[in-house]
Each structure stands twice: as C-alpha cells, then as structure tokens.
C-alpha cells in the first residue's frame, strides 16, 4: 500500500513541529505553582523568632558578644529570605560591634563582616576586614578563602589565584566552589560545571540544607550558561523543594519561561508572586525588559520608574550602581551622570565589567574613539561575559571596524538565552 507524498509531507511536518515544541517547552506550571500560591514565610518567621531571643540578650550598655554573632547571622538570613535591605544593614551594625569587642574568635567576626560588605558591594572595606582576619593567624584557611572572594570582586585575579593555591583540596566543598568560580572567570565552563557538580555531591552527602540550596541555584545558573536548560530548571526545582520561599530559584524559573520559552505572561505571573513578599529593585528591571518584549511601553516605563524610586533608599549604597548608570544613559540620555557612576564603579572594583560600563556609556554618548581605547585596553580578551562582548561588537561597528564584528556575532549567537530575547535582537543590528 502506497502513501502519497502529500501525506508523507504532512506526517513529517507534524513530527518536526512536535519536536520543536518539545525542545522549547521545558517548564510545567504544575511543578512550581505550589510554591507561588502557598504561604511559605516559615523560614522568615522562624528567623524573626530567633531574633527576638537573641535581641533580648543584647542590652544597650552591655557587651553581649555571644548574642551579637547569632543576631547578625539571623539578620543576614532575614535579608536573604525577604530582600529587605534593612536586615543587611542591621547585620552590619551587629558585626561591626562584635569586631570591636571580641577578644577571642575575632577573625570569625571580621570574616562575617567582610561577607556583609561584599553583599553591599563595599569591596575595598571587605578586603580590609578579611586582611585583618588574616593577620590574626587564627584561621588562615578561612581568611584565604574570603580574600579569594574579595580579590575576584576587585579584579585582582593574580592575587585570587595565589590565595586559591593556598587551600587546594579536591575533596573540600569550599575549595571546589571557588575553583568553579575561577574556571568561570577563565571561560572554562565545562570545568566550572564539573567542579560545581563535585561540590554538590559533598553538599548532598552532608545533608546541610544551606549548602545544598546554594549549590542547586548556582549549578542551575551555570547549566543555563551552558545551554543545558532542562538541567537548569530541574536544579531550581530542587532548590525550591528545600526552601519553597527561595526567590532566587523562582526568578531563575521565570527567566527560563521568558528567555527560552518566550512566555512573558507566565514569567510575569511568577515574578509578581515572588514580589508579594520579597523586595529587590532589580525585579522591576526584569519586568521592564519583559514589557519591552511584549511591546508594552507603558508597563516598561512604569517599572523603570519603580526601579529608580526604589534605589533612592540610601541604604542600598553602591549595590545598584551599574543598573542605575545604564538606565540613566539608555533611557534618559544623562550621559555625564552615568559616566560619573561608571568612574565610581571603576574606583570601587576595577574589573573588565566596570570598564565595560564606562566604554558602553561613552559609545552611546558618541565618544566612539575613547570607548574603543578603553575596550582594547581593559575589556577585549579579559572577560567572557556575553554582554561585554556585545558592547565590544557595538564599539567596533561605530568605529568602522566591521571585520572584527562578525566573529563576535557568531560567538554571541550561542549566548542568546543568557542575553535574553530583547538584547539578542541587537545582534541583528550589527
């Protein structure tokens, strides 16, 4: 019995459409809706109860060191659970006092303070705190690990490598996660993922929820960078199984829904659920980007205004400098204000990304030659970040160096998921 070519063509067409649909549909609302609808504030509530206990032991005129440390840790936990900047600043206050009065275990308090400063993007102060701990020589390994973290943030990569070499241990969780970060900086994503997977096994065997949670979300990020979207999604779900209120994992799923599956309405539903009890200004920027993808200019502008208003809170300090500078340059053409922020970022952390911020703004302003000079001296071949490389390509184009643009475009096509559909469209204009 013969089948006509038309029927064969129809069957093949259906199979192709089916395969394409399968490839671009990773998520299932049934997997995560339970984490959006239910009240999962238990972690924050438990932290508040612990806080009451420890604060009751801290009297205004006493030196209750044993209570200050746990109180600071609880404030930090509350910041992570709610995104409320007030808790991060209260943790800093408690840690600052504990470092002043501690006679024993002072290095631990200094390192905790360094971590707090890193969260606030106060990297130079973080370095001083970590160096202070290192000089005490009571826990050199812990100090070296934090000094590695700070060196990476400051762009002091030679120093970071030296510190990393001091605590090499392939069976140590803390070494492996830093080795993963080092390989990510070097552009070796396969090695990054391999080391994070090793670290995850250690975390799972330890039954430590905090280590598992951190490992799942970070590995999910790396899988996303590598185009392993299914693996990324699965690990965000594993994180939510441990902490149903985890905003970072939910945001990660929202990004998959938006950037990979191109379902903006579903992504916004996830983000709105998260933002009902989690405060973070950058969520407004993501909502603005999704609105732009939807061609909803009113929603885009509203969310940009909400972002700008939210970061007026002085307690955020330098935390959103990069986002603020880009917004000023792209949306309001306030190039000089944006450049002043970029200069501040270079002073705070002279990384390729900070120089990229300045070069990008200069190029938008029309100072193409200066932008090219900065790019060639501080950015080209010094970072593997897709956004920085997109900016390099744009700078090459405005300087009529078209022969240098094409290779970057081809490479960036593999990063379309990471860049997102709005920014990826800019590749078509190069």
From TrEMBL:
Domain of life: Bacteria
Organism of provenance: Aquimarina amphilecti
TPR repeats: 213-246
Database matches in PROSITE patterns: PROKAR_LIPOPROTEIN (PS51257), TPR (PS50005)
SUPFAM superfamilies: TPR-like
Key words of the record: TPR repeat
UniProt key word Ion transport: no
Protein name per its UniProtKB record: Tetratricopeptide repeat-containing protein
InterPro entries linked to this entry: TPR-like_helical_dom_sf, TPR_rpt
Source taxonomy: Bacteria, Pseudomonadati, Bacteroidota, Flavobacteriia, Flavobacteriales
